[in-house]
Amino acid sequence: MPDLASGLPGRGLWVTPRRDVVERAITKRLFARAARAPVIVSPGFADRIEGLLAQRCCDAIGLARRAGLAFAGFEKVCEAMRAGKVGLLLSAIDGAEAGRGKVRALGAELPVVRVLTAAEMGGVFGRDHVVHVALSAGRLSRRLLDDAEKMAGFRSGAVVDRGATPAVARRGPGR
């Protein structure tokens, strides 16, 4: 069972959140060796982890949207950035590079996450696709940034740039 939130009881078996590391651990039976017991890993385990991480990222965006802390679409994101309301930028993996560059230019110091597709982000907002999303700084944006870093190890083309903003920077235990 993948423990994405690091909250399940027990000692667990920890592995670096990257597809190649997980697949190598399965192939070499490292989970069974570490547990000193037989461990059955279902086929497509790395794909399952990727899907769960994508769902976790979408859930965080959805919570931010319902709290009024998320902005979707190029114009709304740019407007929120000009107003200083943004702590985290999200761009779709399959979005155009030119659009990403324009948004990035407005907030060069902000963290940028590119791990979800436009369809995945659009589903959160009830649209077919959304290429640009911005979240206000705070607990949800920090959680999303942490989950996105894990997901970047599983999805090809995914990028996480923490930027220079301390408002979303990683904090110690109890973040």
Report on the structure:
With 175 residues, the chain is an alpha+beta fold. It has one domain: Ribosomal protein L30/S12 (60s Ribosomal Protein L30, Chain: A, 2-Layer Sandwich). It contains seven helices and five strands, in the order αααβαβαβαβαβ. The chain has helices at residues 19-27, 30-35, 45-66, 74-82, 97-106, 118-124, 139-152, and strands at 70-72, 88-91, 112-114, 132-135, 159-161. A five-stranded mixed beta sheet has the order 1-4-2-3-5, sandwiched between helices. α3 (45-66) crosses α6 and α3 packs antiparallel against α7.
From the structure above, extract its key features.
elongated, five-stranded mixed beta sheet, 60s Ribosomal Protein L30, Chain: A, alpha+beta, 175 residues
> Which superfamily, in CATH terms, is the homologous superfamily?
Ribosomal protein L30/S12
Task: List segments where confidence is low: pLDDT < 50 over at least 5 consecutive residues.
Answer: 167-175
Into how many domains do the coordinates divide?
A: 1
The side-by-side strand order for the widest beta sheet comes to 1-4-2-3-5
From the N-terminal CA to the C-terminal CA, the straight-line distance is 24 Å
What is the approximate shape? elongated
CATH topology: 60s Ribosomal Protein L30, Chain: A
Spell out the helices and strands N to C. HHHEHEHEHEHE
Helicity range of the residues? 40-55%
Q: Compute the gyration radius: what is it? A: 17 Å
CATH architecture field: 2-Layer Sandwich
Question: CATH class, anyone?
Answer: Alpha Beta
**How many DSSP E strands?**
5
- What is the overall number of helices? 7
